[in-house]
Amino acid sequence: MNLAANISTEDLRKADIAHHLHPFTDYASLNKEGSRVITKADGCWLWDSDGNRYLDGMAGLWCMQVGYGRKEIADAVHRQMMELPYYNTFFKTTHPPAVALSQKLAELTPEGLDHVFFAGSGSEANDTVMRMVRYYWARAGKPDKQVIIGRTFGYHGSTVAAAAMGGMGAMHTQAGMVPGVHHITPPYWFDIGRAEGMRPDEFGVYAARKLEEAIDQIGEDKVAAFIAEPIQGAGGVIIPPKTYWPEVKRILSERDILFVADEVICGFGRTGEWFGSDYYGLKPDLMPMAKGMSSGYLPISAVMVSGKVIEHLVGEGGEFYHGYTYSGHPASCAAALANIEIMERENIVGRVKSTAAPALQKAWAELGDHPLVGEARMVGLVGALELVPDKSDMSKRFEPAGQVGTLCRDISFGNGLVMRAVRDAMIISPPLVISEEEIATLAGLIRKTLDDTLAELKKQGRVA
Ligand code: PXG
User: Fold this and answer.
1) pLDDT confidence of 2, banded at 50, 70, 90?
2) CB count in 10 Å sphere of residue 150
3) Structure confidence at residue 1 as a pLDDT band (50, 70, 90)
4) How far is CA 113 from CA 104, 107, 339, in A?
5) Is the dihedral of CA 262, 268, 269, 270 positive or negative?
6) Which residue from 452, 460, 461 is spatially nearest to 372, judged by alpha carbons?
7) Cβ neighbours of residue 34 under 8 Å, at least 6 residues apart?
8) Among residues of the chain, what percentage have pLDDT more than 90?
9) What does the alpha-carbon distance between residue 128 and residue 161 come to, in Å, rounded to a whole number?
10) Ligand 1 atom 16, closest CA
11) Range of the domain at 278
12) Are the CB atoms for 260 and 228 separated by under 8 Å?
């Protein structure tokens, strides 16, 4: 049923405002403007209820790896729903899709990660992480190791525990903090290192050593884990300087703490490797993942668990008091399996590395010449453009931060392109199946959006 065909956009907007509370939304301002109603999608394209078409530069919400409209996934879910639409995985029970997906994930993920705990979302996966690392240390006979170190601008989800590990200050203020979480400087050279007058390589080491300093300050006997996204996504596509991860790895190798690589955005091909951990050569003890695992066709997430953790988790017995009604939901597992099968058969990750990423990165570097762009950075198919008011004086940023990013994002929508703004960085993370022709279209739409934004800022007298 096409709802929009039967109900006018205006009525949909009214009913939406009357009853629907959106995530991460200023309700008063949404009530004034009304929602954009998305009604259908195909490949890398979206349509709204007014018939406008958009190139989806954000792959839904960083999740649509294989593109919209894959009948094969819908068919697999349909078959599974007719066979066994739901059963739980509690009380010593399992079912074929959960077993098959566990086996597949153990095969795909980096060596040493052979067990999987299923959940419904990235946030739930990270709640699982918090409980599992603390449980691990209790079982390992070191119950005082409770503190989790995260990073400013990290994003690990929106449940209270996941938000606490994340480094979004506004979320901490609203929800209150979970005790035993500490945040360190992120490897955000353009925003932090540059302002301190450091070169990227120098800043990479400096930011990595913040981990060492935090462990020493808190006491290694109190620290349970370090959690980090290989590339910080929602924080603004913060791509660490080349020196960062090698130095973090050096520190982790010397310290008795667990390492959690949050692969919710980087996982499933985004970097041109299956996982961000493959791209940077990381060896996580726990690896939460979601989004691209099912390309968002159905909600599902997982935490990959290493042998080191399994040793104590299984140990001599004792119950892990944790799990969700929908842990290993059969239809979601079927969607994930079908999604992974498509990714493997079409060599989607290999194509990102060999063709799509080089093409988009070339276009990206050219956009770096635009007068509004202070830095153009990208790995695989995820990138950011930092907007600045004056390229001849890069110490200046727009004030207040975020306004110009929002303006540029709105102009982008008007031009038929979905981009995301994080403060004044414009973000893209398109479906991995984006064609070379669509990459050229994307680059053209971004250039037009930057030109239009510049013209508007000149009109407002905000740039010379
Ligand atoms: N970890 C990471 C790295 C994420 O990016 C989560 C965990 C939580 O996943 P769930 O499925 O609980 O949302 C995420 C989610 C944005 C945006 O605006 C990003 C996310 C979610 C919603 C919005 O960039 N990332």
Assistant:
1) low
2) 26
3) very low
4) 11, 9, 20
5) negative
6) 452
7) 13, 16, 17
8) 96
9) 9
10) 234
11) 71-345
12) yes
Cis amide prior to 85 (ω within 30 degrees): no
Q: Which of 24, 62, 266, 293 to mutate to test the pocket of ligand 1 (most atoms within 8 A of CB)?
A: 62
**Residues 245 and 355 grouped into a single domain:** no
Please provide the distance, in angstroms rounded to a whole number, between the alpha carbons at the two ends of the chain: 51
Is 51 inside any structural domain?
yes
Distances (CA, A) of 332 to 125, 167, 234, 286, 336: 15, 29, 24, 21, 6
- Considering the domain architecture, whether residues 319 and 431 belong to the same structural domain is answered as no
Q: Which two tokens stand for residue 445?
A: 């739409």
Alpha helix locations (H) across 329-435?
Answer: 330-345, 348-351, 357-367, 403-414
State which amino acid sits at residue 390.
Answer: D
> For position 155, which CATH number holds?
3.40.640.10
179 lies in the same domain as 162? yes
Q: Strand 45-48 vs strand 223-228: parallel, antiparallel, or unpaired? A: unpaired
Ligand 1 atom closest to 123 (CA): 12
Centre of ligand 1 from the C-alpha of residue 45, in Å: 21
Answer whether residue 317 shows pLDDT above 90. no
- 123 and 160 share one domain: yes
Answer whether 60 contacts ligand 1 (Cβ < 6 A): no
- The Cα 178–Cα 185 span in angstroms is 19
Residues 238-273 as b or e (16 or more Cβ within 10 Å = b): bbbbebbbebbbebbeebebbbbbbbbbbbbbbbbb
Which alpha helices (H) appear in 219-351, and where do they start and end? 244-254, 276-280, 307-314, 330-345, 348-351
Residue 3 predicted with pLDDT over 60:
no
Q: Indicate whether 438 pLDDT > 60.
A: yes
Q: Is 268 left (phi over 0), alpha (psi -120 to 50) or beta?
A: left
**Mean pLDDT value across the chain:** 96
Name the domain boundary from 345, 372, 392.
345
Last residue of a domain, one of 323, 345, 367: 345
The DSSP annotation for 110-171 comes to PTTEEEEEEESSHHHHHHHHHHHHHHHHHHTT-TT--EEEEETT----SSHHHHHHS--HHH
Q: How far is the centre of ligand 1, averaged over its atoms, from the C-alpha of 116 (Å)?
A: 20
> Position of tokens 């596509």?
237
Query: Which residue has 């070379």 as its token pair?
Result: 436
